[in-house]
């Protein structure tokens, strides 16, 4: 299955290549923030009958399978 691209990754690719080294750290931080937002959203949508630890594990699995490059 082909991994999806985050909006942050798309934006990074649109930038001139000569700017990449200067902003790589900021884009990595933005991607980390996106990952955390996925986790937070999953926890907020939990109806309450699923243990939060399991919800977080499932959200992390979803993120890794959908967006994370090997």
Task: Describe, in short, the structure shown.
With 70 residues, this protein is mostly helical.
Give the SSE layout.
Layout: H1 7-14, H2 20-45, H3 52-66
Characterization of the model:
The mean pLDDT is 92. The longest helix is centred in the middle third of the chain and has 26 residues, at 20-45. The chain has three helices and no strands. It has helices at 7-14, 20-45, 52-66. It is elongated, with a radius of gyration of 15 Å. The protein has one domain (7-65). By secondary structure, the protein is mainly α. Helices cover 70% and strands 0% of the residues. Helix 2 (20-45) runs antiparallel to helix 3 (52-66).
Amino- and carboxy-terminal Cα gap: 12 Å
Largest sheet composition: none
Q: Which term fits the overall shape?
A: elongated
Q: Estimate the strand proportion.
A: under 5%
Q: Which range best describes the helical content: under 10%, 10-25%, 25-40%, 40-55%, 55-70% or over 70%?
A: over 70%
Uncertain residue ranges: none
Average pLDDT over all residues? 92
**Contiguous helical run count:** 3
Strand and helix order: HHH
| Helix-strand makeup class | mainly alpha
Overall strand count: 0
Number of domains: 1
Kindly report the oligomeric state of this protein: single chain
Indicate the radius of gyration in whole angstroms.
15 Å
Primary descriptors:
mainly alpha; 3 helices
């Amino acid at each position: 299955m082909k991994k999806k691209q985050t909006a942050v990754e798309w934006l990074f690719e649109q930038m001139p290549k000569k700017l990449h080294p200067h902003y790589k750290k900021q884009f990595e931080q933005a991607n980390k923030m996106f990952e955390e937002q996925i986790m937070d959203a999953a926890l907020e949508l939990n109806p309450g009958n699923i243990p939060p630890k399991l919800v977080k594990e499932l959200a992390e699995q979803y993120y890794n399978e959908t967006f994370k490059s090997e």
